[in-house]
């Protein structure tokens, strides 16, 4: 009998009980998932990206199914930071959840303003900077598309955030050069990186022949994008082996989570699969733990980055 | 977690039947049956274990029975690949079912006269509602509409449960030619209805809401908006709804609904973000006091 | 009864009998598909990218399945231009196939050299420039990653190719900015654009915890990438409405082909689905024709770009 | 198109059986049955219509019968999700099957003595081969190996068809403990074998090729390399093979094989691109005359 593996993992200063998180925007306020399991069992819960003011988001229909994935265009609907601090964050804390607060904005100042209010209120275990937001300065582009713009945002948030609270920059997979973007964010003060956000994409409705979701720009997520996401994590880890990474994109099973860990992520977030299976996060955690146990791995940290070992090196736990 | 919240089950299929243009599947799901209140729905994973179809399909719960510890029935029309796959299920296959989901129809305290209005397969949730109302001593009258005779939903059970049952079809192949709203006002007057319950396609609900408004009758509608998760996570099913505070919010049909008070739903603005909705582009916070922005219970799901 | 729609489509100077093509590298030499159907029925057959010298490609295993897709790393195995001209191109012509010859190389000179020999031999109806080849000048990057480099290659091929033969530049979806890349290629003389090539990605083998395919860089293709590909076509068409496009990426059914046409492609290529269904191309052609017939569309050209019509405009054939 | 090329069919499943550690599926596929020659394989689409599993699964054809116009049987072990899905098929389900694929075993003109060597499920194609050889008057001897008793393939039919049948298992649970190659030389001597046919995992084939070489016997091997398409399109199944001209090429197992002459396959270099392979990195064209580069029939598939 193999002993139960130690599932704790480190993300810069933060220690999580285990590496499985719920991804930003895919876990509601936490309350919705809490109807299916105790959210304190997760390594962390990332919140929907919080903006300064309330946002109504984009018109419905906001979603269209794609092969092994979906294209979504929610448009950051949310109540704004004040209601978040008053209603949602305290609730997460009351449940014993570890809150990764995702922040968004239309410019470095708004991002920083949100981070500052978070700092004042306390309770965020980590701040994740969602860089896949349109940059009003660069027409049609997101902050994540221009490393220098992304860096400005990260620098502003890092400056406004509490010292002990790690700031992670969340990157897009369809960035010009994910590694260059990663480097720019780390240089600007990011304590770690979350990757990947949805990829740009759209469908055309076969009957109306109109873009779906409306407007012609949505985000593709789900298992369909997993190899792209794993590739981003792998390449970033190779370039920046010291920077802690949160990997995500299409995680559906414990074996998928193990893929991200081996590629170099220290924690793994589950997004779209929460929609398909409300217990996905705890199921994936259980499956991962079992896989590690079967391999005889003592600590989850032992498999982090395992895919980078030189050829011929021992496989962890084998 | 909570005892009256939804559960996720792997439920064996008991029966698959054809009912006119519809398929009816009954699954054994005691925990869903026991929690169910009329107006709620369930969602089903489709395509099997390695399916490329990721999103669950939502269906209204049409019937709940105590057999085998508790069974649940839903009816559906084949529309795309998900419902086509469901139509091929056989007895003993296992389905991944989550339910019951959403807010149920509020039931009147007193034995009042209830007018139940349904369109096409949207009529499904009205049947358990009718039974619940009858158990409370309410009078029930049905108005059911559809495009054609074979899409009129459970005409026979409607006749059996209700005091009166009126049918309309677009093509006149069954009942009165026309729309449910054409019959609604007459039936409401004849039956001295006190309250209206409706479900069906959005445009029909909009017309029912209008008619109920003109008749000064309170109305509850169960909306059908395309859903990504059914559990309140994905924010894809939003409908502009006016809150107690008078402000319009983009409410999630799956957890804030599917049942809403008809006059609260801005039917004409469905599929848009009304300019005056909370957080719409150009919208300005109306107060510096964060408390004033409210956090209505409904939005929290 | 609707009349049979006119399926002919134009790609710069070239008219195809119908808009369905087999994608480069996914149709062998044509002979392999010809065992299942008459390849003259296709609008065109794109060849595996031809290099100057023979290439052995990458070691096996070269492929790993991913959700609704696959990750491949063949490495342009092929016999080189001379054997191609002697054996494969004449065979395609003898079958009445329309040959889109895809060319590849390790620099503008090699690309041009291949194009020059093609010109001398004649028989190519179109030259497609595969820009997703590693650029030895830019470490680890492909020509498609750097618009200026891509432009150099396109300019060299356009200069070497026969005048009447259209040159299409084949773009990657994970380019920095697909539209900027498209513009650079058009400026350099591309008569049209093919999009998209595979996206970078990889899997990690769940047992060995090693990258799969080996080396950690493969290309993701198949239905999984379709929304990303449709989005690229839509955005490029919006920016460059006059440039003819060949759309591809995960086309599985006639309805998928219609999606690409509506997004702005004048022809649609089928890649990975040939592996899953050797009759995919002719099935998709049949399905597309039937869909157009049901809509009452007279000419396939009428639906090209339909998704760009202003809101409220009539739907073609409705 | 061509009359002896592969066909794609939607074939009804006739039977699904358990055979020790294996599942055996028989499908009705007259066109495949009629074209089949031993050594060929088929490929099956898995997961149903909206499957997220795109790639076809290849399986050796184990048996062909004239019933129902022509049936084809393949055997498989459950390895991953594709074979797990196949194991759940039932009689009358439809399977998407393409076959017969690949080059068959060449049969000797004269009634010579043939030694058939198989490992695990890899032994499947040897059974139709044994029948074909017997019909030509050849003597057939079997050596079948596996990891354990329940993985030894069709021991009873092997005994029935062959003059002698020798079994080896890694754990000694059936027959002789050890590898097939341990038994091979003795059996070849006893049976005065003239030719060796082998299939199974690559390392085993490498050892068989070595043994046959030492015994100076010609050997034909059917290789199993991971396949993306099975039809020669995707270039994923390549194996370094020495051509008639002495040059090594990366040959496609699916159309240039799966059967190769044993001494042509560079078993030690499987999974690599040998430095001297045609077009390997650093490789230099050896002649300006394009004709010299050859275009051996095999490469054209
Ligand atoms: C609360 C609710 C209750 C419903 N009850 C019933 C019922 O009792 N009987 C019935 O026949 N239908 C009902 N529907 C509609 C039913 O969910 C859709 O017909 C079904 O999801 C279509 O799936 P498909 O794969 O066959 O079609 P596709 O159109 O291929 O589906 C593609 C995607 O769009 C979504 N979608 C498509 N149409 C709808 C729709 N009208 N509503 C929600 N999502 C949609 C699907 O869920 C899926 O994600 C209900 C919908 C909702 C929201
Ligand atoms: C010519 C040939 C003949 C074969 N005959 C038989 C047979 O008669 N009986 C039998 O049990 N098995 C046979 N195999 C192996 C069989 O194809 C694999 O076991 C099967 O594809 C595994 O699919 P999976 O989804 O269960 O496993 P997974 O490992 O999940 O498959 C994932 C992917 O890898 C590929 N793959 C995995 N293992 C193999 C393998 N060994 N060979 C080829 N592709 C693989 C699959 O096709 C699929 O694309 C044969 C393989 C080849 C190439
Ligand atoms: C409906 C939806 C909403 C999302 N909202 C956010 C968000 O608010 N902030 C953010 O950083 N990422 C958001 N994401 C991206 C996810 O957190 C995740 O990065 C991405 O979906 C890839 O993971 P997945 O394939 O597991 O979903 C959203 C994704 C989806 C599908
Ligand atoms: C195995 C394989 C080999 C390919 N070889 C080439 C190639 O030689 N040249 C090229 O331009 N594209 C090549 N491609 C890319 C395809 O032509 C196509 O652009 C891509 O796969 C997306 O389409 P699909 O999803 O329909 O496969 C290849 C793709 C695959 C999967
Ligand atoms: S369907 Fe996902 S929030 Fe309602
Ligand atoms: S499996 Fe595709 S070429 Fe052999």
TrEMBL record, chains A, C:
<feature type="active site" description="Nucleophile">
    <location>
        <position position="133"/>
    </location>
</feature>
<feature type="binding site">
    <location>
        <position position="222"/>
    </location>
    <ligand>
        <name>FMN</name>
    </ligand>
</feature>
<dbReference type="InterPro" id="IPR050074">
    <property type="entry name" value="DHO_dehydrogenase"/>
</dbReference>
<feature type="domain" description="Dihydroorotate dehydrogenase catalytic">
    <location>
        <begin position="8"/>
        <end position="292"/>
    </location>
</feature>
<feature type="binding site">
    <location>
        <begin position="48"/>
        <end position="49"/>
    </location>
    <ligand>
        <name>FMN</name>
    </ligand>
</feature>
<feature type="binding site">
    <location>
        <position position="48"/>
    </location>
    <ligand>
        <name>substrate</name>
    </ligand>
</feature>
<protein>
    <recommendedName>
        <fullName>Dihydroorotate dehydrogenase</fullName>
        <ecNumber>1.3.-.-</ecNumber>
    </recommendedName>
</protein>
<keyword id="KW-0665">Pyrimidine biosynthesis</keyword>
<comment type="pathway">
    <text>Pyrimidine metabolism; UMP biosynthesis via de novo pathway.</text>
</comment>
<dbReference type="GO" id="GO:0044205">
    <property type="term" value="P:'de novo' UMP biosynthetic process"/>
</dbReference>
<feature type="binding site">
    <location>
        <begin position="249"/>
        <end position="250"/>
    </location>
    <ligand>
        <name>FMN</name>
    </ligand>
</feature>
<dbReference type="InterPro" id="IPR033888">
    <property type="entry name" value="DHOD_1B"/>
</dbReference>
<dbReference type="InterPro" id="IPR005720">
    <property type="entry name" value="Dihydroorotate_DH_cat"/>
</dbReference>
<comment type="similarity">
    <text>Belongs to the dihydroorotate dehydrogenase family. Type 1 subfamily.</text>
</comment>
<keyword id="KW-0285">Flavoprotein</keyword>
<feature type="binding site">
    <location>
        <position position="170"/>
    </location>
    <ligand>
        <name>FMN</name>
    </ligand>
</feature>
<feature type="binding site">
    <location>
        <begin position="271"/>
        <end position="272"/>
    </location>
    <ligand>
        <name>FMN</name>
    </ligand>
</feature>
<dbReference type="InterPro" id="IPR024920">
    <property type="entry name" value="Dihydroorotate_DH_1"/>
</dbReference>
<feature type="binding site">
    <location>
        <position position="130"/>
    </location>
    <ligand>
        <name>FMN</name>
    </ligand>
</feature>
<dbReference type="InterPro" id="IPR001295">
    <property type="entry name" value="Dihydroorotate_DH_CS"/>
</dbReference>
<dbReference type="Pfam" id="PF01180">
    <property type="entry name" value="DHO_dh"/>
</dbReference>
<dbReference type="GO" id="GO:0006207">
    <property type="term" value="P:'de novo' pyrimidine nucleobase biosynthetic process"/>
</dbReference>
From TrEMBL, chains B, D:
<feature type="binding site">
    <location>
        <position position="254"/>
    </location>
    <ligand>
        <name>[2Fe-2S] cluster</name>
    </ligand>
</feature>
<dbReference type="InterPro" id="IPR017938">
    <property type="entry name" value="Riboflavin_synthase-like_b-brl"/>
</dbReference>
<dbReference type="InterPro" id="IPR012165">
    <property type="entry name" value="Cyt_c3_hydrogenase_gsu"/>
</dbReference>
<dbReference type="InterPro" id="IPR039261">
    <property type="entry name" value="FNR_nucleotide-bd"/>
</dbReference>
<feature type="binding site">
    <location>
        <position position="234"/>
    </location>
    <ligand>
        <name>[2Fe-2S] cluster</name>
    </ligand>
</feature>
<dbReference type="GO" id="GO:0016491">
    <property type="term" value="F:oxidoreductase activity"/>
</dbReference>
<dbReference type="GO" id="GO:0051537">
    <property type="term" value="F:2 iron, 2 sulfur cluster binding"/>
</dbReference>
<dbReference type="InterPro" id="IPR037117">
    <property type="entry name" value="Dihydroorotate_DH_ele_sf"/>
</dbReference>
<dbReference type="InterPro" id="IPR050353">
    <property type="entry name" value="PyrK_electron_transfer"/>
</dbReference>
<feature type="binding site">
    <location>
        <begin position="82"/>
        <end position="83"/>
    </location>
    <ligand>
        <name>FAD</name>
    </ligand>
</feature>
<keyword id="KW-0479">Metal-binding</keyword>
<dbReference type="GO" id="GO:0046872">
    <property type="term" value="F:metal ion binding"/>
</dbReference>
<dbReference type="InterPro" id="IPR019480">
    <property type="entry name" value="Dihydroorotate_DH_Fe-S-bd"/>
</dbReference>
<keyword id="KW-0411">Iron-sulfur</keyword>
<dbReference type="Pfam" id="PF10418">
    <property type="entry name" value="DHODB_Fe-S_bind"/>
</dbReference>
<dbReference type="InterPro" id="IPR017927">
    <property type="entry name" value="FAD-bd_FR_type"/>
</dbReference>
<keyword id="KW-0813">Transport</keyword>
<keyword id="KW-0285">Flavoprotein</keyword>
<feature type="binding site">
    <location>
        <position position="237"/>
    </location>
    <ligand>
        <name>[2Fe-2S] cluster</name>
    </ligand>
</feature>
<protein>
    <submittedName>
        <fullName>Dihydroorotate dehydrogenase electron transfer subunit</fullName>
    </submittedName>
</protein>
<keyword id="KW-0274">FAD</keyword>
<keyword id="KW-0001">2Fe-2S</keyword>
């Amino acid at each position: 009998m193999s002993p139960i593996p130690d599932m704790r993992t480190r993300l810069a200063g933060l220690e999580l009980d285990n590496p499985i998180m719920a991804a930003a925007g895919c876990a509601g306020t936490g309350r919705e998932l809490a109807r299916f399991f105790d959210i304190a069992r997760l390594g962390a819960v990332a919140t929907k990206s919080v903006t300064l003011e309330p946002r109504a988001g984009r018109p419905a229909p906001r979603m269209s199914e794609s092969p092994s994935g979906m294209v979504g265009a929610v448009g950051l609907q949310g109540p704004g930071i004040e209601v978040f601090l008053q209603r949602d964050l305290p609730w997460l804390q009351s449940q014993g959840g570890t809150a990764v607060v995702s922040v968004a904005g239309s410019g470095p100042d708004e991002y920083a303003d949100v981070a500052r209010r978070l700092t004042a209120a306390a309770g965020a275990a980590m701040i994740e900077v969602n860089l896949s937001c349109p940059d009003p300065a660069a027409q049609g582009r997101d902050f994540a598309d221009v490393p220098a713009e992304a860096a400005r945002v990260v620098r502003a948030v890092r400056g406004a955030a509490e010292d002990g609270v790690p700031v992670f920059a969340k990157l897009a997979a369809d960035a010009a050069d994910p590694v260059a973007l990663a480097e720019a964010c780390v240089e600007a003060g990011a304590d770690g990186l979350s990757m990947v956000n949805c990829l740009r994409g759209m469908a055309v409705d076969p009957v109306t022949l109109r873009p779906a979701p409306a407007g012609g720009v949505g985000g593709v997520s789900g298992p369909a994008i997993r190899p792209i996401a794993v590739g981003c994590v792998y390449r970033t880890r190779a370039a920046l082996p010291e920077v802690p990474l949160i990997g995500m994109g299409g995680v559906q099973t414990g074996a998928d989570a193990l893929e991200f860990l081996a590629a170099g992520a220290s924690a793994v977030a589950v997004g779209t699969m929460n929609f398909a299976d409300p217990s996905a996060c705890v199921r994936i955690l259980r499956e991962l733990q079992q896989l590690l146990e079967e391999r005889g791995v003592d600590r989850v940290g032992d498999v982090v980055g395992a895919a980078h070992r030189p050829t011929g090196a021992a496989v962890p736990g084998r | 977690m909570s005892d009256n919240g939804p559960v996720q089950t792997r439920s064996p299929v008991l029966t698959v039947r054809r009912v006119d243009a519809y398929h009816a599947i009954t699954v054994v799901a005691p925990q869903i049956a026991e929690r169910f209140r009329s107006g709620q729905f369930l969602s089903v994973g489709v395509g099997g274990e390695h399916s490329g179809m990721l999103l669950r399909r939502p269906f209204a719960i049409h019937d709940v029975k105590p057999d085998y510890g508790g069974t649940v029935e839903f009816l559906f029309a084949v529309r795309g690949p998900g419902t086509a796959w469901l139509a091929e299920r056989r007895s003993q296959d296992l389905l991944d079912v989550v339910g019951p989901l959403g807010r149920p129809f509020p039931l009147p305290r007193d034995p009042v006269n209830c007018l139940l209005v349904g369109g096409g397969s949207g009529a499904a949730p009205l049947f358990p509602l009718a039974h619940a109302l009858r158990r409370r001593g309410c009078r029930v009258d049905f108005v059911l509409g559809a495009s054609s005779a074979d899409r009129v939903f459970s005409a026979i059970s409607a006749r059996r449960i209700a005091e009166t049952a009126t049918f309309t079809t677009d093509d006149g192949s069954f009942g009165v030619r026309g729309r449910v709203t054409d019959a609604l006002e007459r039936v409401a007057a004849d039956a001295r209805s006190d309250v209206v319950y409706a479900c069906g396609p959005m445009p029909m609900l909009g017309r029912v809401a209008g008619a109920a408004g003109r008749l000064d009758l309170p109305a509850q509608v169960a909306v059908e908006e395309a859903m990504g998760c059914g559990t309140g996570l994905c924010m894809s099913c939003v409908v502009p709804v006016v809150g107690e505070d008078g402000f319009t919010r983009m409410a999630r049909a799956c957890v804030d609904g599917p049942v809403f008070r008809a006059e609260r739903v801005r039917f004409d603005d469905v599929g848009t973000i009304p300019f005056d909705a909370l957080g719409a582009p150009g919208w300005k916070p109306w107060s510096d006091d964060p408390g004033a922005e409210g956090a209505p219970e409904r939005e929290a799901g």
